[in-house]
Amino acid sequence: MFQLINGPQTLGATRVFWLPFIAVLAAVLLYPAFADGYDVGNMAYLLTWVFMAMGLCLVWGYGGMLSFGQTFFFGIAGYGYGVAAVNFGGDAGTTFLALAIALCLAAAAAAVLGYFMIWGRVGGVFFGIVTLSATLVLAFFLGQTAGPEWHIGSARLNGFNGMKDMAPLNIPWFGDDPLVFDGIALYYLVVGLILAVYLGLRMMLNSRFGNVIVAVREDPQRAELLGYDVRKYQLATFVIGSTLAGLSGVLYTSWGQFITPASVGLPAAAMPIVWVAFSGRGDITATLVGSFLVLWAFQTITVYSQQAALLLMGAMLLCTVMVAPQGFVIGVVQAVRRLFGRRRPSKEQAAPTASTVQEEARA
Fold first, then answer.
1. Which residues of 49-62 are buried (b: 16+ CB within 10 A; e: fewer)?
2. Among 23, 176, 284, 353, which residue carries the largest CB count within 10 Å?
3. CB 337: neighbour CB atoms within 10 A?
4. What is the Cα 77 distance to its own chain's centre?
5. Cross-strand partners of 170
6. 68, containing H or E segment
7. What is the DSSP string of 310-346?
8. How far apart, in whole angstroms, are the C-alpha atoms of residue 363 and residue 352?
9. pTM, 2 dp
């Protein structure tokens, strides 16, 4: 298992990486003890979006398929959770049943859409165009559902106003009151899910499956000639990455107890591209760290000016393309490696040569 976690497809295979990782994890776990409830809830909100970024890193960075459809699956899962939670009543742990249904809906939608695109040999820029078109169609459809006839059971879709008042995630607990995942409980739930997804993705990417999808990204024809069914690996990668976007949608809906078509539309669909491109789409750790930093900066600036935050996103994408196309987080890691590599002399440089010794003796 440890060999899979520290494999060649991910950064960080030494103590230099894992010791700071444990320190950061400890700080994250202790954060609620030193922060007020509002900040903890706000931090949980930021972390809910990280799943979408990691899913796009898997599909785009490792699989080589640029998908603009992360918010498409985000919306399907978010609305699916809302409809199921409203109809189930949200008591006695039925919200986790709603979560499972929502994730299955997102995975099924990804399987259908991915099947037609991958088996239809849709690739390159057209892959992004098709997924963006699906996203815009869903956003437009949800915006047209304001009438009372647009309901599923007792759940109304409400058009541009969106759905609201669905129950948050909860499970039966000791006593009469359930354990509701909001505030600190939701924070720890999201942190635990991020840790599980991150380590699971590292193991998957360093396994035979991960090596194959990287080989398919580099040269699909050669991978096919070696006997691999390229289409199945691409479809599996697309479904997993899209389901992670669906998980973000469920957690977001549970956090705010609402979801609107604006969370699916064009501005929202462009955000994951900026997060992952800035962070470095070639590594899951870079995406995890960079996406959180970008989200935190965006949220902080939005408090003062939403327009300024959007301008920052555009500037970051432009700078990434012009200065560090591999991503700024990966660029910083490479710069640190070069810096320490120059300062640390090699064995050949440190050991005196025979000619050097003779020259010193003559002197």
1. bbbbbbbbbbbbbb
2. 284
3. 10
4. 15
5. 180
6. none
7. HHHHHHHHHHHHHH-TT-HHHHHHHHHHHHHHHHS--
8. 15
9. 0.89
pLDDT tens digits for the chain (363 residues)?
667 787 788 887 777 788 989 999 999 999 999 998 889 999 999 999 999 999 999 999 999 999 999 999 999 999 999 999 999 887 777 899 999 999 999 999 999 999 999 999 888 889 999 999 999 999 999 999 988 899 998 999 989 899 988 899 988 887 778 888 988 999 999 999 999 999 999 999 999 999 999 999 999 999 999 999 999 999 999 999 999 999 999 999 999 999 999 999 888 998 899 899 988 888 999 999 999 998 898 888 887 877 787 788 788 778 877 877 788 888 887 787 777 765 555 444 444 444 444 554 454
Distant-in-sequence, close-in-space partners of 140: CB < 8 Å, separation ≥ 6: none
Residue located via tokens 């997924």: 131
> Measured in whole angstroms, how far is the alpha carbon of residue 23 from the centre of its chain?
22
Q: List the beta bridge partners of residue 180.
A: 170
Q: Name, in order, each residue with C-beta under 8 angstroms of 321's C-beta and a sequence gap of 6 or more.
A: 277
Count of other CB atoms within 10 angstroms of residue 264? 29
Residue 305 phi/psi, 5° resolution? -160, 115
Q: How far apart are CA 146 and CA 319, in angstroms?
A: 41
Interatomic CA distance for residues 29 and 289, integer angstroms: 16
Report which DSSP code applies to 170: E
Other Cβ atoms closer than 10 A to 199: 13
From 115, 111, 72, select the one nearest 272 (Cα to Cα): 72
Give the HSE-up count for residue 77: Cα atoms under 13 Å, Cβ half-sphere. Answer: 31
